What does this fold into?
Amino acid sequence: MAVDLDQFKQIFFEESFEGLETMETGLLGMTDGETNLDIVNDIFRAAHSIKGGSATFGFTAVASFTHVMEGLLDEMREGKRQADQTVINILLESVDEIRTLMTAYQNREDPDTDQAQLLQQKLEAIFGGSGNTAAAPEKESANKSEAAEENRLLGWHIEFTPHDNLLITGNDPALLLSELAYLGKMTMVMEDGALPPFTEMNPERCYLRWKIDLLGVNDEGTDAAQTEEAQIREIFEWVEDECDLVVKGIYPERKASDRRAGDRRQPGQLEDRRQSDRRTGPRRPDDKAPAAQPTTIRVDTNRIDALIDMVGELVITQSMLGQLGEDFDMSKLSRLKEGLEELERNSREIQDAVMKVRMQPISFAFNRFPRMVHDLSQKLGKKIRLELVGEDTEMDKTVMEKINDPLVHLVRNSLDHGLETPDKRIAKGKDEEGVVCLKAYHQGGSIVVEVSDDGNGLDRNKLFAKGVERGLIKETDVLTDEQIYMLLFAAGFSTAETLSDISGRGVGLDVVRRNIESLGGNVDVRSVLGEGTVFTIRLPLTLAVLDGQLLKVDGQTYVLPLNSIIESLQIDPNAISSLAGDAEVYQLRDAYIPMVSLSELFATGEEKPRGEEKHCALLVIVEWADKRIGLMVDDLLGQQQVVIKSLETNYERVPGLSGATILGDGTVSLILDISGIIEMSTRVREQAMNTRRATGKRNRVA
Amino acid sequence: MAKILIVDDMASMRKMVAFTLEGAGHTVVQAEDGDIALKIAREQSGFGLVITDVNMPNMDGITLTGELRKLPSLKFTPILLLTTEAGTDKKMEGKAAGATGWLVKPFDPDKLLMTIKKVLR
It folds into this structure.
């Protein structure tokens, strides 16, 4: 029977990578000199599963490597070895190595085993002489492999005496005997001498014994003379301790040979090549063209069940509407409306449920950091504690995959540049152990991820000087702290004096910012000099669907993300006041809110003489990253969910727009990007201010 | 053809075994750990064979074997342990708990099918 194991390999890879993470987390949770048995057990179980699976699926390099590793873990488990830093480190290295090997297998490449062998030697060195016990072949295989000289052996004589408890383990002598019949022509004698009188007989016990001769060729053509003792013993392997078994070769001169079979398995060589080659054919890495690995997602079955329930409801609604359509007349209009409402509710629920399928806890992204902090703090000679907060916060899988790199970058930055060395910290009166904190939480329709440290903080003056040096700002510019901090995210800005191999590899925070913005998010930074820095990333919960408010400006329909809207109001001309520059602000209760004309910003309206452009009737107050602006719009239309289509893939990136969508009537509508609009309007304002300051007179900026 | 309960926390192994057995015409019920398996064994009947991994969270395969043997419906039902060659101690522990035999990893579908022939009535 040929079974293609490939379909299970992908699952196995995923499980193994999860297992490796468990191992890593466990190892990082261990303290020098203390062995936490629960953790060791978890690690052992993960290693053991990976070993068993990789052997089964033919990943020999992984199997033999984990085998050695498992030996070491076993010693720890049995309390023969304490977990010291050396052991922990080498086990961490081993985890990496398995990951590397596994990735190679996943990509259908031949794994590079040099590194694995080196590491294996290191493991064995630690493991010492005792390492061989686990790798050594089992004692019974030595006995089993006694074989006779082929030309002399005629067959086998077997005496099988089950102990009376043999049946209780679920074994059945009849089945064992019928197995024997496959090995040659069988004749047997059953002895029932031990049978007690019927009244004393316990039906759960076995009272019989058998004497069997395997001699000659059976119906299938198997000659008992070709059978090896090991094959016979294998049949009785499970009942070894529940029976007395005698296996003797039958020779013309009745002389057993003690020559050993040559095909004994080598220690550590877990895959039985002979067998796997014969059965499944040789495994070559190039057997199949390397295909892109399908990405899979693990979903709580409850979520799938919920989805199935909802589809059930949808089907009911659909059949209800179908019936209604068969013989429709206007008297049934109210039922039609009801049905359509039901349909709308069904589709919205299904949509929510489908979105939930893609939601994963952010711990998937956070999990790599304990290791990273562990390694880097050793490398940097700093004492660092990592705190993870809100690991259960869920976010879209796609978003999570894409913020991985930015997060790594920010954490590396904190470790490298943010936190001080222990002596510096002590000198400043801080705890010698620095803290890096990763925190995730939901806020409105966004997910917020903070990377904070209690290190140096940002030096305003240093950043300013650097900005001037790089030509990003002018010495005469008056900037708020916030604006200065944002310089960090400008292209070509780096404050580190020396480039270390930890951060500052030419990729700057500008890339981080760009990545986050391409996801429709934003990043900002707060800092107190000497006390620490907080980077805050804000991301939309999902990339696919948006709750939108439709609005009209200059005859165009736009979509505004509903969750960014604070309120909408009719413009009261008395509440508008002009500030210095071109800025118009709207007084809303106690706050002054900058007014932004979309018509001007996108230059869609006709050029109007100054003072006449504020004809818009409505002001929509929107917020992004704690900043509020008022958008002037002509009209507010309905609210609806829209499916986001990327502008970049279909056209090109347009500032102020995050994408496009197709409305119910088939028209294309553009989706407004609030963070982009805030940024654009701020820039326009600043330019206006600067021009005015420079020229001394009011200039209109289009 | 038998109804077989397969218990393994690793989905890849569990599914591979299930797929193989189903391909050979058996009915397969899958469980992710000992707790779940025990619950299934209490609720359902007619199992002709149980195949369980040894190393599992919640309830390991050996404890499970002991528990299954206490159920009248599974008293004489063959129970096979999935183990690795290093686990000689485990084999003995498993036998003491009432396991019928074991299946040593690595195994391929053919070996699996050959092995279960030894215990399937």
